[in-house]
Amino acid sequence: MSALLDQAAALLAAAKAAGADVAETVMSTGTAVSVQRRLGKIEETERAESRELGLRVFIGKRSASVSASAIDPAAFTRLAEQAVAMARVVPEDIYAEIPQAPAPMDVKSLDLDDPVEPSAEILIARAAAAEEAALAVPGITNSEGASASWSRSDFLLATTRGFAGFYTRSNHAVSATAIAGAGTEMQRDYDFSSVAHAADLDDPAALGAKAAERALARLRPARPKTARLPVVFDPRVSNSMLGHLSGAIHGASVARGTSFLKESLGKPVFAAGLRIIDDPLRVRGRRSRPFDREGQPGTVRAFIVDGVLTSWILDTRSANQLGLKTTGHAGGTSNFYLAPGTLTPAALMADIAEGLYVTEMLGSSVNGITGDYSRGAAGFMIRNGILAEPVAEFTIAGNLKDMFLHLTPADDLVFKRGTDAPTLRIEGMTLAGA
Questions:
Q1: Cα gap 225→213, rounded to integer Å
Q2: CB 151 within 8 A of CB 31
């Protein structure tokens, strides 16, 4: 990492020499290895190495950025001169700036790096275990394959305002996709695990078997009748609600006036008792980070407290537009999650005489200005509190303002994707089917 620090210092010096008032650089290096296996044969093995940089310069309130797919000190002067020349001719942006940032925290406490690269044999064994477990389940007729991968990357941010921070993260992943049935009645489903440390990886055989179980459960789906009913979202898709929320409370959307929640700060947006949190400091977290893309320190922040919206998601530019301070979210959220409720998923569904359990979302029609929501979906009917027949080829619709207010979480939160929610129940949605 010392070499990257030296190169960053050299690039920033070149930017100053070219005429930049202030400048920042992002540099990253990475190694990635993956294997793909299908029906017992290795279809693909790949190893990739990358080195990339970005440079942003300011001349007064004018700024420009350049990037390169190689870190070549011999090209630093040319890159810096190009960036400065571009900055001289663009319009001023009175809100943009490179902020002051404190010294970065000790990243070791986040435990994001597993430095041991697994051999190709280990990756092949993981993929094989996942696929063979799926194919061993009676009723599974084919496989879309299984994959296993490992990657490790370094990230560095440095500015002429005195900030220099870096961290390394690793990732181990396994996935499998199973196919059940034949001809036009085939159904597919999947499972996966993606973690920083190999020790936390789910058992590949267990996830292969789970993929098979899910595919079998989807066979011979019906098309449900149009109705207004409660909808329960499986954790595989419930996190999409947080995606819609984060887009609506991002400072840039609020500043443009294009968010359906633009007038909701300090008001109830969800039911009382609900909390939605961003935690960049989660140990071994999927998206943990010691600082954001502007060097601002990672801090745990609750955006929804007792159902009330407490803050926008802000980087420096959007904070300046709104007359506020950055929340340390340049580059977006980190480990963004909805805190679990007190009911089990079974208890959450127990009083539903007829409802819908969604396991897959297809396409999207969500209006960020009005909150109108309409998405294709697949899943299962709920009858008398339990899952019944599989269903497909339908749309669920509502308005996100109403959906958020009538949302109830179960107690089964698992940190798996970086944006996570437990099983969710939403009352009074419209199912458009047969």
A1: 26
A2: yes
